[in-house]
Specification:
This protein is α+β, with helices and mostly antiparallel strands and 159 residues long. It contains 3 helices and 7 strands; from the N terminus they run H-E-E-E-E-H-E-H-E-E. It has one domain: 60s Ribosomal Protein L30, Chain: A (2-Layer Sandwich). Helices cover 30% and strands 28% of the residues. A 5-stranded mixed sheet has the order 1-2-7-5-6. A two-stranded antiparallel sheet has the order 3-4. The chain is globular, with a radius of gyration of 15 Å.
């Protein structure tokens, strides 16, 4: 068991079987020592986390921000599942999380997009420490596939 697998276990994370593509693309592409993982949506054991965030969700009282951050964390878990396949089953090969792009299903008035995507970013730092710190974009979108709340894609350096 790699240190990464041990860390995931200590966090209570059991990586799912990676989802198959639903359109004409591949789950990841490796070029040199970089792995580009296609966007992973917020889907977990209870199904897809759907929803559209609005400006009224900014107050933090509805619990919607926490739900959205949890959705971003699910995206990160799904990214790790795809990355594990790309690494031949050994996440110990991950050298660095290079970049994440996070997309949040929201209206014009929703201003906490970076805080939502932190749900994914925080997990990578928890799992990989300093090697999990990455460049990032956090973007609001008027719609995401299947109505999911969050989608995240990533670029990773592997040995």
């Amino acid at each position: 068991m790699s240190q990464v697998d041990a860390k995931l276990a200590s966090l209570g994370i059991d990586l799912p079987t990676p989802a198959a593509p639903v359109a004409n693309y591949v789950p990841f592409v490796q070029t040199g020592n970089l792995v580009f993982v296609s966007g992973q949506v917020a889907v977990g054991p209870d199904g897809m986390v759907t929803g559209h965030l609005t400006g009224g969700d900014n107050d933090g009282t509805s619990g919607t921000l926490a739900k959205a951050q949890g959705a971003a964390r699910l995206c990160a878990i799904n990214l790790l599942a795809q990355l594990k396949v790309a690494c031949g089953g050994d996440l110990g090969r991950v050298v660095r999380v290079v970049k994440l792009n996070g997309f949040v299903n929201c209206s014009d008035g929703f201003a906490q997009i970076p805080e939502v995507v932190n749900g994914a970013s925080d997990l990578f730092v928890e799992v990989f420490g300093d090697a999990g710190r990455h460049a990032r974009a956090a973007v609001g979108s008027s719609s995401l596939p299947r109505g999911v709340m969050v989608e995240v894609e990533g670029v990773f350096e592997i040995s």
